[in-house]
Structure formats: structure tokens, C-alpha cells
Amino acid sequence: MFLSSNLRHVSSFRTLPLSLFTSPLRSISPSLHWPSSSIQTKLFFFPTGLISTPLRSLPTMDGAPSATSDATSAGQMVLEPILEEGVFRFDCSADHRADAYPSLSFADQTVRETPIKPVSFKVPEFVPRFECGYGQQKVEIKFPSGTSFYGTGEASGPLERTGKRIFTWNTDAWGFGPGTTSLYQSHPWVLALLPDGKAFGILADTTRRCEVDLREECTIRIISAAYYPVVTFGPFGSPNEVLTSLSHAIGTVFMPPKWCLGYQQCRWSYLSAGRVLEVARTFREKGIPCDVIWMDIDYMDGFRCFTFDKETFPDPKSMADELHSIGFKAIWMLDPGIKKEDGYFVYESGSKNDVWVLMSDGTPFVGDVWPGPCVFPDYTQERTRSWWSQLVKDFVTNGVDGIWNDMNEPAVFKTVTKTMPDSNIHRGDSNLGGQQKHTFYHNAYGMLMARSTHEGMKMGCPTKRPFVLTRAGFIGSQRYAATWTGDNLSNWEHLHMSLSMVLQLGLSGQPLSGPDIGGFAGNATPKLFGRWMGVSAMFPFPRGHSEKGTTDHEPWSFGEECEEVCHLALLRRSRLIPHLYTLFYFAHTKGSPVAVPTFFADPEDQKLRTVENSFLLGPLLVCSSTLSDKGVYELSHAIPNGIWLPFDFGDSHPDLPILYLQGGAILPVGLPYNHVGEANPQDDLILFVALNNDGRAQGVLFEDDGDGYGYTKGEYLLTHYVAEKNSSVVTVKVSKTEGSWKRPTRRLHIHLLLGGYAMVSADCMDGEEVQIVIPSISEMSKLIAASEQEHMKRLETVKAIPDIEKQPGQQGIELSKTPVDLKSGDWSLKLVPWIGGRVISMTHLPSDTQWLHSRVESDGYEEYCGTEYRSAGCTEEYKVVRRDLEQSGEQESICMEGDIGGGLIIQRSISILKNNPNILQFDSSIIARNVGAGSGGFSRLVCLRVHPTFTLLNPTEVVVSFKSIDGSNHEISPESGEQSFEGNLRPNGEWMLVDKCAGLCLINRFELSQVSKCLVHWGSGTVNLELWSEERPVSKETPLRILHSYEVIKAIS
User: Fold this and answer.
1) Per-residue pLDDT, 139
2) For position 806, what pLDDT does the model report?
3) Is 654 in a helix, a strand, or coil?
4) What does the DSSP 8-state code read for residue 177?
């Protein structure tokens, strides 16, 4: 079996038999493959006395077909050609194919079930292998050396995914990091780019939790509950062809109204109608383009959906009318959590119509969210979707132009899992899968809510295109809604990640996405915000958003230099909307992508495959800088082969991206506007022309009303422009048109790019043929030299954004500072010395597991100086007093000190040692640095309290396990609540956090004589494993100290 052979590769890891744990295993990944490490091979023997429970088949909690308890099967999957040439459905057997649940990803479910007769049947080049057993199905495909992986949907971290693993389990992932493995959306999809530039796609068509493991080079492994089909696409000649074919299966993006492509301003929250109008008017007064203002949850009456606060938003329709009068649209939030309150009309009507998600006992599930106790609509039922759609239809009469679905993973407060129980019941329609446990529908919940909202908006305004934004989604959600990349952080790392995240979503079928510009959590600095606005103004979905407690994050909030950069960026955006709208027309009608990685220009070029600071919008190459210390012109950009000519709108700036037009392309752009509604079909149109080596170029422009459905009836104008060089003359003309619209009477300005920002121009009426004479070689050289000189002069004279970390009077947490990296051996850490010296990320590299990930100002790894929660030590600024790094990179350590008052400091040394690179060691002390003689040289009472907050990847599959000093064995699950252990009940020098699903154990060892108390506290998706010293005064001679370490071992079955 292919999976068992992989186990040979992990021989360098310590192992712990999973069968020794007392609770049954619901999900095991025996196929885990880690690269070899420096850890010596050892067999870990678990303390004796525990009851051994052998592996057995999983209970079919969500009605999944049951794998027999002992029998396993393996081999090549059986196939059927479906959909179109080159697309295949694979199942473990014909019986499994017949038993498979309906597809929620396919736009037309029957397509997956209907074999086709291909024109010329060929055996697929790549055939998946499978192994089934213990209730799971594992799928593997091998590819040739030099293959690169992309996709996996909404995923943080690098663009190229080799070495990474994700889990499709929609999760409220506030402040996620590059190693977070489950975000808000689920796309069990991988795009493989082969060495020769051809491409291949694979979709695991299951809504259940799914592990997509790309940690071994050139190998895709997918693990989920049995049984499910996989669908493969290709290999085709290019990645674009694969994505187009994928869209034929999962559907294309909804046709967006043109106004939603303009800039959009949001905040949690604009607390009154007056404040909303003030922000809107400021945009107009300053001439900064903006099309949309967003209303976060505080507009509601006590967070009750479909209501308005009578004091702060007393007349939402009048406010919306005033916004409309100055060219703004209004978008409002709706969450799934409905307050359980008698007399509240939504709760009353929902209960009457029996629409709520149920617990296993048949009563409505109640969970806490923003309003307090809430019930949740069961969108898997048609009657629930109709009920919700009717509420939305009535809601839009208040002047609502768009709806924002948030918290729809669904997120639930005060739970370890951060969502509703797996055992909850959804009474789904038969064509969705019928009645199932929550595990079956969890990943589809957000998509089904967005679908219901989309349908409700369409009912409310039949002549308008709905606009819905959803946080949670599943592959196929683009049919109903746009998305954003969730609650990011205001720092340079998240700015950089935003490019890859938007591109990954596009490579997974969702082209309409973008980040919270400037970062949601924390305070951006002027340079960070300006740089983020510069690149995000080129993203498909451009929205600025920030959370409560942060400074204002409007474009004018960071000083005049940053405001000018934002102004230029958004004017550039408004000029490019005709091009972007055309791209979305083809995305909607043809399934072509909108924003794609640079390698799409030359898929065979290996050096382009990991480029993360540039991307393509059709033939337009956008090159940016996401580095705090370098502007865009200080970087060497990877430019694809061929002709790429730089150009601008007289707006070049070190904090704005550089724009290149591909040779052979014509780019239509418009005039700059304050909002999309200002544009008129008779306005001047500009064409930028870049000839290819053959002296030719072509481009296309789509135009319609910008809203409604007239385009489906031919009420549009699709113009194909061509340019051709003959001798020294370039002729530009219209080669073809489509649609019933007549060409507007307007001026056409044509700019023929020569290189080095130089151009020659000509004007005519649109539709006329125009000829442009190309200058002689000597004249062209002079033009290019003069243009380059003028361009450099502009860059030298523009006002750069100040390079400051904090503005005067700014309050709140600084996320824009760069964390300190500690990376060596098996470990990679990020630390923030400026706030408590805390560790905010702790990643075990061989298993690619992020054991600890937190927000900057709380949680993570903290240390206190007292028994009370968060006493001094966790927020004070620490200074790095020593940093040791061996030349070989095999050993690294850092020593920090924080002043905790009264002459005391906390000193912490974190080390990854050369002779034990698998061990991460913390050596912490409370030291009396300057204690007065009047106190006898002794300090106040202190206690060194080590407080790490570990992230639970699989909250329901985790236990804390140890053997006490007295010999008793302990296994503590989340249901146990908070427990502390003192005296002989303390762990005998070590305890471990065991993730049964991942098959991993995090062992924490400590010096027993230094620890007087151990405490376990379960949070929402987290657990604290605390070590407490004794409580006493300290002197220079008698410090408090806790020396402890962490090691990851693999549990084996």
C-alpha cells in the first residue's frame, strides 16, 4: 500500500503508540510524511497502567458510508469521463460511485453523475491511488520532478504550496498567520503546474473536513472521511485552461455590478448615521474616489439582525438616500446568529417555520454570539432558505445596496471548537445530502447562507444584480458572493501575504476577493497603509476595514504624504475600472481568471513560480514592494520573457506599484472619477498600445449599463481593437464588435508605448481608423531618454511617506513592527519584544504544524510575575540583550529582559541547540536587579508563571496526558474544564498535548524542583499548559527560575 510505504520516511521522529490512549480515535492520519530531521530515532513508551484501546472503525456520525472495522482496501481508483474532454471522475469502486453524496461544489449536480463519450478516449496521464480503512479514504497522486503546487483556496503563507498542509474546516481565524492551516473557507482543490508548463487540477468533492497534504515534493495526498469522489482536470496546455475547465464544473463568478469594483470604505464600526455621512462627504471634499460605505454590526438594535438602532440609525432609508445622492452605495451586515428572544420578530417567525439547526435531542441548538444566546438557521433546507430570502427581500427596501454575511463558519463563542457541536442535526434537502450531522454541512454552511442572501436580494430588486460578501464559503461560493481574506493584522507580513491569498482564491475559482486594506487588527503606520493601498487598489475587491479600538484608517488618517499616495492609487483604480469590468465579464461568461500569478505569462519559467510581489490583470503586470525598507524602484522584479513596457498616468511614486503592459496588448482605460456613477458612455476613452515582436496588438472592452441583466439579452457593446505596424506606421482600428449597443460618440486617445515610459499619441473618434507614425530610431532614443529623465525627476520630487513607527498621540497596539524571527533545527518562532516579549508563533517545521499562533497583544507564550492572571511581565517592553546565531544556522538563541518594577526583571532565554535541534528550550527567571537595602535585599512576593496558549488544530481530538509523581495516569479532555495539579499530583517532569487527529504529541518537559503547580485551562480553540514556580520574595542571590522545553513526536498506530 502506498501509504504504509510512506511511514518509512519518518523513522527519524520519536513515536508514541496511539493505541495506548484511552479514548477512541475519530480521525487518524497514518499517511503523514515528514522530511527527515536531526532527531534521533527513539521509541517512546507511554506510562504503564492506561487502558489500551486498539484502532477501530469510526462511527458514521454524519451518515457517511462505513468502512469495515478491520478490512482495508487500496489500489488505483476507477474512472469515468465527465463534463468535457480531459475531465475525469474517480471513485474507489463502482459501488462507492453509486453511493456518493450529491455534489455541493458543482453548479449542476447532474454533470458529475453523467458520463460522457469523449471524442477520443485516452487513459488519463495521472491516475489517483487510494487506501480506505478505519472510516477514512486517502488519495495520492505523484507528479514528475519540477512540479509546483497552487490553489487550496483561502490559504495563508507562500504562493507555491509545496511543503504545506491545510485542513478544510471553516474557522473563525482572527489574526491568522502564515502557518495557520484552517481559515474561513474550504477549497479542497489543488492546481499542479507541471515542469513543461502544462497544468492539472484535482478536486476532492467532499464537504467534510479534508486534509490536503503537499508536504512531499511532487505529491498530493488528500485524506477525508470515506467515501468521496475526486475529479481531475487535464493535464491541459496552460493553467488558464484548467481554471476555465474548473469553472465549467463549479460555475463562474456572478456578474458583479460595476459599482462594486470601486474603492469601498468600512470600519467596525461607524457608530451613527451622522458619522457615516461625515466619512462619505470627506471623500467627496478631498476628491478621493470611493463608491461604497459599509455598516458593521453596531448599526443593529442590540446585534439583532434585520433591525436598526433607533438612536444611532433612526432612519436608514433617508441615510441611504443621502449617500446615493453623492454617489455612494450602502452595504449592511447580516450574521446567522439570531437572538433567542421572545417578541423578536425574526426569532418568532423562524420558530414558527421550524428553521433552526437542531441538537441531537431534536431541540434547537442555542449558542452564544454577539447578541448573546442565539439560534441558527438551517440553510440546508429549502424552506429555511426561502424564509431567509424573504427577510432579505424586505430588508433591502431600507436602501440596502449590498449585504455582508459575517460569522457564518458558523462561529460560536465560548466553545473550544469555536463552532457548533459536531452532533448537531441539519435536516438537509435530499439533493444536498439529506439529514446529516453538522460535520457533513459545516463547510457548506456559509455558502448556503450566501446563496439564500443572494436570492433574497434578487427578489427584492429584480432589475439589479445582487452584491453579497461572505466570510465563510466553500468551493463554488463565487456563484453567489464575493469574499475577503478575513481578520488580518496591520503588519508587513500580512501585507505581503495578501497578494498570495488573493491569487490563491483566484486559482481556486473565486476571482472576486481582497484583504482588509491596512490590516483589520492593530494600527497601521503611514508607510504600511500607503503601500497597502497602492497594491490593493489593483486587487479585484478593494476595501479598507479596521476593528474597534484602533486609530482611524481612512485614507486621510495618516498624514498628507500617505493621503496623496492613497489619492493617486485610487485615481489609478478608477481609470482601470473599464479594464477590470471587462475581465469580470469574461470571468462570468467564460470562466477565465481575473488576477493571476506572474507565471501565467510563461508557465515554463521556473523562476516565476515563486514570485509573490507581482501579479497579472490580463496583459497588465503589477509589480509592488511589500518590504518596509525598500520602495518598489529599489527592488529587482522578475519580468516574464517577451516585451513588457512600463507606463503610468503621470502618477509614479515609490510607494505605488510599477505597471507594465505586455507586448501584443491594447489596454482600454477611462477618465478618473470620484465614483463609478460619474462615468458617461460619451466620455473620452484611452487606449495604451504595446506592440509585440510582429508589430501587432489587440485588446477588448466590454460595456453595458453596469447593472441589471440587459447584457444577457445582448444589450451591451463588446469592442475588439487591433493595432498593426506596416513599415513605420501603426494602424489602430476596431476589428469586430458584439452586442446590440451602438457605439457612443466619444473621443479616443491612443498612446503607443515605445519603452522607458515614452509614447507617441494620436486622437480620433472612437470607431475610426487612426494611423500613428513611429519615430526614427534616433528620435525614439531621444524620446525614451527624455521620458526616463522626467520619470526619475518625478520620483525625486514626490513627497515620500515618512518612515515612522507610530504617529503622535496614536493609541493602541502596534502590529506594524517587525517580529523577531528565531529559526533553526526543527523550530521557527516569531517574538514581539515590544509587547511582553511574547512568542506569537511557534511552528514545528518537519510536521509543518503551528502549535502556537496568537494576536500580538494577548495570548501566545506569556510570562507573569504573580499568581493573578496577566500580572506584570506580559505587556511590558522587553529588550533583546543577547542574540547568538551560529554561522551554520544550526543553533540560535535569544535573551530578553523586561522590567516588572520594584527592581525586578523577568529574563527569558529561548534556545534551539546545535546538539538537540528538535528541542526548543525556555530558561526563564525573575531576578532582583536593583532591590533596595531597606527591604533587606528581598523583593515583594512574586511567582514566575509560564502561560503558553496553544492553538488547537483539532479541538475535539486533543487531550493533555501525563503521569503524576504518585504514579497515577491522567488524560484531560476539553470537557474537563480548568484543572490544577500540585504536590504529588504534578506531572513527573513532563506532560504532553496530544492531537490524535494529526497523530502528533507536543511534550513539555520541566525541572520538577522549580515547578510547584501545573494548570490546564481550555479556551475557545486553545489550551493553556501553565507552569508555576513557588511564590516568595527574591534577592540577587535567590532568583526564581523555570527551565523547560518542548519537543514534537509522532504518534503511531
Assistant:
1) 98
2) 52
3) coil
4) -
Residue 227 preceded by cis peptide, ω within 30: yes
* Cβ proximity of 174 and 409 under 8 Å: no
- DSSP 3-state assignment of 728? coil
Residue whose C-alpha is closest to residue 910's, from 838, 858, 836: 838
SS3 state at 576:
helix
Torsion angles phi and psi, residue 800, rounded to 5: -70, 150
33 beta partners:
none
pLDDT of residue 118: 79
Residue spans of the chain under pLDDT 50: 1-61, 63, 65-70, 808-812, 887-890, 933
Is 779 catalytic? The answer is: no
Helix (H), strand (E), coil (C) string for 815-882: CCCCCEEEEECCEEEEEECCCCCEEEEEEECCCCEEEEECCCCCCCEEEECCCCCCCCCCCCCEEEEE
C-alpha cell at 525: 503606520
Residue 690 parent element (H or E): strand 685-690
Which residue, among 538, 578, 517, has the nearest Cα to 659 in the 3D structure?
Answer: 538
**Burial class for 1020, CB neighbours closer than 10 Å (0-12, 13-18, 19+):** middle
Euclidean distance between CA atoms 595 and 615, whole angstroms? 7
Active-site residue, from 91, 205, 216, 409: 409
User: Which tens digit of pLDDT belongs to each residue from 456-509?
Assistant: 999 999 999 999 999 999 999 999 999 999 999 999 999 999 999 999 999 999
- Kindly name the residue from 291, 406, 766, 862 that is annotated as catalytic: 406
Q: Where are the alpha helices (DSSP H) in 210-292?
A: 239-250, 273-286
- Whether a cis peptide bond, with omega within 30° of 0, leads into 269 is yes
CA torsion angle for 371, 377, 379, 380 (degrees, to 10)?
Answer: 130
Catalytic residue list contains 409? yes
- Distance, CA of 435 to CA of 279 (rounded, Å): 47
291, 401, 487, 703: the catalytic one is: 487
Q: Which residues fall within 8 angstroms of residue 589, CB to CB, at 6 or more apart?
A: 252
Annotated catalytic, 394? Answer: no
